[in-house]
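hey can u check if this looks right to u? its 529 residues, i copy pasted from the old doc so theres a chance i mangled smth
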Amino acid sequence: MLQAGKYLRITLRDEGAFRGLLRKVVRSGDPLLEVFACRINRESGARYVSYYGHRIEYKSELAAGQFFANKKQLTKKIREYHVDKNQEIYTKRSDTSKLEIRCRTSGCRFKLKARATKIGDTWKITEQDTAHTCTSEYTRIDHAQLTASIIADIIGPNIKENPTMSIRSVAHCVKVRFGSITPKYNKLWRGRELAVARQFGSWKESYNFMKLLLLGICDKNPGSRHLFRTKPSFDKDTGLVKQGVVEFVAVAWAYGPCITAFGYLRPVISIDAAFLSGRYEGRLLMACGYNAENQLLPLAFAIVQKENEDNWGWFLHWLRINVIGVNIFVCVISDQHKGIKAALKPEYGWDSDNFVHRYCIQHVADNLVQACGKDAWYGTRFKLGARKKKPRRLKEMFEDFAMQNPRCNVFLRRVGKVRPNDVMEQSNFDKIFQTCDGGYRFGIMTTNGSESLNAVFKESRMLPVAALVEETFYKCNSWFVQRRQAAMEQRDAGKPFSERVHVKLAKRWVKAIEMDVIAYSHGEGSSIS
């Protein structure tokens, strides 16, 4: 508005319109308007006119004579005013030049009229002489004028700080602003989604921007790779293929430093998926490794529509070719999702001579508890036995289960089978027990790494996809900076190994110096006990 010492800037690129505007303002004699400043931007050809309104006190926030920068600001003010008063209205007329508002309550004489001033995009309230003669409904729960856009305005600063803001928190912010009014869940949800889109970009356009973002990242970060998976788009009416238009199916990406670093890690990767919790459904697939400190190193990401053999196969094939390498042997740890088990086969680049598949014992423990009586002891005892390296400890676990609940042993003998219900197929314990593993796990028994990665990107998974990709980039970048600094400090301190290795060596040294060496049978050799 132009009152209360506020400025309004109007942009005109046409010189004739610019001069006409000056003549109209000077000759209008309107006491509300006064030319405050005028300058010409010769570079862009734009003309800027700034108006300064006299300080005028109005009896009503919607009094006649008030000016607004555009129609959007006018309608927003009208809506907020009536939400505050808890009175509903409806639009009798609305076009490019005029606006007429009436009260929804029958018999109320409230009426507001406004029109475009033809001075830039400004609008002026021309008539509003009668206040509402109806009574506010204080028992009203929702309000017609409390739109998702207004809710987004209210929670905008909160969303910037906390993108995971719950619907309950959104409702609380609205209640603090407007009192007793509590919108329906759907309106609160749409308001939050709109606020997120304003902060982090449009949900729909984010898919187009994601391609430009990944191209820029790969261009500036050597070794980084990405791949989009698309399909033709068909016209719904004609059934013909739309030229120059494709539909998004999936995308996979990995950063150059992560790809390079994999050669220095233990040959073990953990894979998992997490839900995208924004406007559109989808899954975030992740593969990660572990450094010498057992810290996570994200290797690759993918966004797909759902978890199945096709999507997991596509991602794992791309992972094998572009990140791990074709001839590199690796141990894959995952849950027992059918899509993962079906995708780990030769046609996707996973031959029996270049990988082994192991299950996360936490997922097996959860399934064991659910299948055999929902007793937490079953899961605890299983995880204790699965971590043991001596066969006799595994035997003790089976004996305990035989005494407590024989169904546990039946369940565990089926877990590693290709066909769990085939009684003729031999049990495959190497997938779950470390004593039968052959050392391929390197002591990593769970997918806690990728599960932790899910938690790291919990907030990011609520954002548009381009913002999610950007967040993975900055997170990986910050980890590399921190860990490089830590490694340099270790080197400068004269420690050739990681801190975790030095701690283990120190513990074993203390244990070793307490041992006694007894020599016997000198003629045939010696033994150490």
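Residues 1-9, 26-54 have pLDDT under 50 and may be disordered.
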